[in-house]
Amino acid sequence: MRFARAVRSLVLATLASLGLLAGAGCGAIDETQQVLDRADLVNELASRLARGNELTYTAEYQLASGETATIAQAQLPTRSAYAYPGGKVVINNLATAECRAQRSGMACTLTAPPLSTSGPPAGVLDAATAQGLIHPTLVMRLLTTAALDTDVVIEQSDTTIAGQHATCVDVSQLENAASSAFTACITADGVLGSFRGDLRGRQVEVSLVNYTETVAEELFQLPAGAKITDQRAR
């Protein structure tokens, strides 16, 4: 809720700076209300994704390539795993492990754990994104950017994905973001249901195909036989 109020306040400040809240006629007031309504919608979905960081679940996604990827996370202690074609990232309170397939087999690099539980460290999932797996934190940033863009076009719909009710937004004409147009669906619990759109000039599409509220511990283990390089400070 504090996150939602903060973004709404930013939107109000932006509108005020553009002169939409002062000396406006009825038409301008209606337009301003529509902007605020759109901001509230995408802001709520971003807040859902933020709350989703507190869940325990396993989510399997189908990628545009036809291959699958998995996002798993658990609490106490907080840990997460992202498995995608050719690689895997495991994050816990001891380390951030980036594993990628090489000619000689899987190789993992260990670096320091993240400083917060708000999401993976910057850049750690770039390889996963390049393989078509967009992570929830990036979708949350796109939604937050859309909430602050007064010229963005947003349409809402509802659907069911892998048995989970989800709210979807079709966003277009978004400026100053990694994606100018996308469709994102967020489940009622705060899990990414689907994403389709351009991402830094590349088309990305993921869709939830299986969801459970349990996690197998082996999902947080590094690939068997992987060569491990530990770069953590000692």
Question: Overall pLDDT, averaged?
Answer: 85
- The tally of domains stands at 2
Give the proportion of residues in helices: 25-40%
Structural class: alpha+beta
Order of helices and strands: HHEEEEEEHHEEEEEE
Percent range for β-strand residues = 35-45%
Distance between the termini: 39 Å
The largest β sheet comes out as: 12 strands, mixed
Strand order of the largest sheet: 7-8-9-10-11-1-2-3-4-5-6-12
Rg over alpha carbons: 19 Å
How many helices? The count is 4
The count of DSSP E runs of length 2 or more, i.e. the number of strands, is 12
Q: What does this molecule look like?
A:
Helix 1 packs antiparallel against helix 2 (26-52) and helix 2 (26-52) packs antiparallel against helix 4 (136-148). The protein has a twelve-stranded mixed beta sheet. It has four helices and twelve strands. The model is unreliable at 1-24 and 26-36 (pLDDT under 50). The protein folds into two domains: 2-54 and 135-212, no CATH class; 70-134 and 215-230, no CATH class. With 234 residues, the protein is α+β, with helices and mostly antiparallel strands.
